[in-house]
Specification:
With 308 residues, this protein is of the alpha/beta class. It has twelve helices and eleven strands.
């Protein structure tokens, strides 16, 4: 294989770094490992580059990784530092000998879901954000403001609400099977605050309780079901703020992999007059599109090394 026909695609997130080597839309090899805090950190471009290089080294042996036709990297924290984003594009191009494009994970998700066309995407993972690019390429965003000020209805929000409900039940509030599930995490419900405080990433840790909330809700637990109903209501509000008069949205993110929750959210959106459309791709596909094509509708939100 001539490496100049291939593109390197990366999703450098806060919890996970993924890389793929692609040729003509086919994934030739992939690798993943831990993530990083985001480009907003001190020396964020250097840290992101080192993480990506380390992850590329984990690709299956025999895959040529330089020179390439292009590089597309969806990176957490792009919005926090345009300077670090541009620097990352430059050092990626220098390291791999190919034109590089750096964009936010949310922009990449929208690109992938709509194949570069206008449209709204709701991403529900540990965080939650709705992104819409209109016909003029202008970004309309709602939420995505992090665990302290936003991400309403997200995986973190659902997990946190589940843990809070468990402690409320422990105090004598409404009974819920979430109490047993939460107690198992720390040995006792009374130990949950100290257990969570000892986590290196409390938001991600709370998000890991979300599958328990989903499972108990699907099994019929009334408290868990009320949590999901509120999460859906919050997410409908987020989509409504971002989508304007378009009233269509594509859904992405780890929480959406739950068919049970996806049905609940789709029904809530339908009740608000918003139609769910199938995503054409994901954030990795969006990063690949940015690497392969210039002059995109979303171009002003993509940082390039200026070699193309």
């Amino acid at each position: 294989m001539d490496s100049r026909d291939a593109i390197l695609v990366a999703d450098i997130g806060k919890s996970r770094c993924r890389v793929e080597l692609r040729q003509d839309g086919t994934v030739l090899g992939s690798a993943d490992q831990h993530g990083f805090p985001g480009l907003g950190m001190d020396d964020g471009a250097r840290v992101a580059l080192e993480l990506l290089v380390d992850t590329v080294a984990m690709l299956p042996a025999g895959l040529p990784t330089a020179p390439l036709r292009g590089i597309g990297a969806a990176v957490a924290g792009v919005e926090a530092s345009a300077a670090q984003s541009r620097e990352l594009a430059v050092v990626l191009a220098e390291r791999f000998g190919a034109p590089a494009a750096v964009l936010s994970d949310a922009t990449a998700a929208q690109l992938g879901a709509w194949n570069g066309e206008p449209g709204t995407v709701l991403i529900v993972g540990t965080g939650a954000v709705a992104f819409r690019f209109d016909d003029a390429g202008t970004l309309h965003r709602a939420d995505g403001w992090g665990p302290l000020l936003g991400d309403l209805g997200s995986g973190r929000w659902i997990g946190q609400a589940g843990l809070q409900a468990a402690l409320h039940a422990y105090d004598g509030g409404p009974a819920t099977s979430l109490l047993t599930a939460a107690s198992a995490l720390a040995g006792s419900a009374a130990h949950l605050p100290a257990w969570l405080a000892g986590s290196d990433n409390p938001s991600r840790t709370m998000g890991r309780f979300t599958p328990e909330v989903l499972q108990e809700a699907e099994a019929g637990d009334a408290v868990a079901r009320s949590i999901l109903a509120e999460a859906c209501s919050l997410l409908v509000r987020t989509v409504s703020l971002a989508c304007g008069g378009t009233r269509h949205v594509a859904l992405l993110g780890g929480v959406m992999k739950s068919e049970f929750f996806a049905r609940l959210l789709q029904n809530a959106l339908a009740s608000a007059g918003i139609e769910v459309v199938a995503a054409l791709g994901d954030g990795m596909d969006g990063a690949a599109l940015a690497a392969d094509r210039r002059g995109l509708l979303q171009e002003r939100y993509i940082h390039r090394d200026r070699t193309i």
